[in-house]
């Protein structure tokens, strides 16, 4: 690992805060729900969501960067290893911009979910935000973990909504919020809950 990778990992350990993110996701997940965290990464979101026992969270990813005791199931990135409608809800937290085939991933997540898919994404809207996003994503992901692709699919909130609609997964609401990094309070993100019952195949 090079210097940039070490810097990225060190910065992530010091400044990354999952707790505020989890509090924005939790309202979309009723108590007692079974939840699939797709692209779970370090599994901290899965760990925090399941900590009080009100949610049963399963973590899945294509690579193992798990830093928790949460069991992580690996898969091939194509077909999730679960039958149709296996989970009440699913999460795609900062995952779609890494996916080589994001449309196929959305449809696969819809396949295994009964009720709600919660998408959380970066949503840079200005040229400056997009330039920053590319550098930031490279530092925290590709440089720090060379097995994580940096697809550079930057979209603002409206473009994420349009993308999900094109997948037959129109969000039921759009919740914008600013970064939960202490040093980056002005950086934009978006939470997009999708009702599976209203989603269409295609």
Number of strands: 7
Supply the number of helical segments. 6
The H-and-E topology, N to C, reads as HHEHEEEHEHHEE
Terminal CA distance reads 41 Å
Mean pLDDT: 84
Helix content: 25-40%
Given helix and strand content, the structural type is alpha/beta
What portion of residues belong to β-strands? Answer: 15-25%
Shape: globular
CATH class: Alpha Beta
CATH topology: Rossmann fold
- So, CATH architecture? 3-Layer(aba) Sandwich
- Biggest β-sheet strands, sense, barrel: 7 strands, mixed
How many domains would you count in the coordinates? 1
Arrangement of strands in the largest sheet: 3-2-1-4-5-7-6
Radius of gyration: 16 Å
Q: Supply the CATH superfamily name.
A: Vaccinia Virus protein VP39
Q: Uncertain segments of ≥5 residues (pLDDT<50)?
A: 3-15
Label this structure with key terms.
Rossmann fold; seven-stranded mixed beta sheet; 7 strands
In short:
The protein is built from 6 helices and 7 strands. With 202 residues, the protein is α/β, with parallel strands linked by helices. The radius of gyration is 16 Å and the shape is globular.
């Amino acid at each position: 690992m090079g210097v940039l990778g070490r810097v990225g990992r060190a910065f992530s350990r010091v400044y990354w805060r999952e707790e505020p993110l989890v509090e924005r996701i939790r309202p979309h997940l009723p108590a007692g729900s079974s939840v699939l965290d797709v692209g779970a990464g370090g599994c901290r979101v899965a760990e925090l969501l399941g900590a009080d026992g009100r949610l049963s969270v399963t973590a899945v990813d294509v690579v193992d960067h798990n830093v928790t005791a949460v069991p992580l199931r690996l898969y091939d990135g194509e077909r999730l290893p679960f039958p149709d409608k296996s989970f009440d809800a699913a999460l795609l937290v900062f995952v779609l911009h890494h996916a080589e085939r994001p449309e196929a991933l959305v449809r696969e997540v819809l396949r295994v979910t009964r009720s709600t898919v919660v998408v959380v994404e970066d949503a840079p809207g200005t040229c400056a935000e997009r330039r920053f996003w590319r550098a930031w994503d490279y530092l925290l992901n590709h440089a720090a973990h060379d097995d994580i692709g940096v697809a550079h699919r930057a979209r603002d909130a409206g473009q994420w909504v349009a993308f999900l609609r094109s997948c037959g997964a129109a969000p039921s609401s759009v919740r914008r919020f600013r970064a939960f990094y202490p040093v980056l309070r002005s950086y934009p993100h978006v939470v997009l809950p999708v009702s599976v019952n209203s989603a269409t195949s295609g």
